[in-house]
Amino acid sequence: MNRSHSISDDAIALIKDGLAIGRNWIAYPEAEYFLDKQHINFFRTKSGAITYAAFQNSKQKEFRIFYAGSMADVFKQINIELNNNISSKNHFI
């Protein structure tokens, strides 16, 4: 699915913290338009992310997983709609 999302500043801070400690695999629910910190899940391994997403998918929630090495990767993968969250532009630095 290729849809835009908006993301909270709290979620951005949480993602930065997760990436800093090596939790580079991220899972989030595709159906959520506005992603807050409770929607973002971090994993050290791909298999951990896949297992979590599969369990969530069985609950009628479709999760997307991806690997991110940087915040720029996160913004590309989640397809952030910057027009709705102007402050997100500052987080590429």
Keywords for this entry:
3 helices, disordered C terminus, alpha+beta
If you had to describe this structure to a student in words, what would you say it looks like?
This protein is α+β, with helices and mostly antiparallel strands. The chain has one domain (6-85). It is built from 3 helices and 5 strands. It has a 3-stranded antiparallel sheet with strand order 4-2-5, sandwiched between helices. The termini are far apart. The model is unreliable at 81-93 (pLDDT under 50).
Please outline the helices and strands.
Elements: E1 6-7, H1 9-20, E2 25-29, E3 34-35, E4 41-43, H2 46-57, E5 63-67, H3 71-78
Give a brief rundown of this model.
It contains 3 helices and 5 strands. By secondary structure, it is of the alpha+beta class.
Q: What is the topology, as strand order, of the major beta sheet? A: 4-2-5
* Rg (CA only): 12 Å
Poorly predicted spans: 81-93
Q: How helical, in percent, are the residues?
A: 25-40%
Q: Give the overall pLDDT as a whole number.
A: 82
Terminal-residue CA separation: 27 Å
**Proportion in β-strands:** 15-25%
What's the shape? Answer: globular
The tally of structural domains comes to 1
Q: What's the count of strands? A: 5
- What composes the largest sheet? 3 strands, antiparallel
Number of helices: 3
Helix- and strand-based class?
alpha+beta
The helix-strand sequence is EHEEEHEH
